Amino acid sequence: MASYIKSVLFAEDAPRYRARRKPPVQDQQALAELLATLGASRLPSNLNQIAKHLNQGTLPFDEDLNAELKQACIDVAYMRTELLKALGGQQ
Hints:
Number of strands: 0
Radius of gyration: 23 Å
Largest sheet: none
Number of helices: 4
Structural class: mainly alpha
Shape: elongated
Helix content: 55-70%
């Protein structure tokens, strides 16, 4: 870092470094949608509670829990897909 600062301050022909580019608007929109989905869901809290009860051995497995686990898997898959789209990856 010191070498860079010295080169910029004291050398007239110092190389100019490009500023970081902002991500395209499309990426910002997809990332905002992903964060909104995560924020609106109770997914982190639900998964934490499930893990807690599994560790304690006090988890009664019923249709409600089964449905919640399936929905959590769907939510995670959706967030993964949206994140990959935002980062320009394959779906």
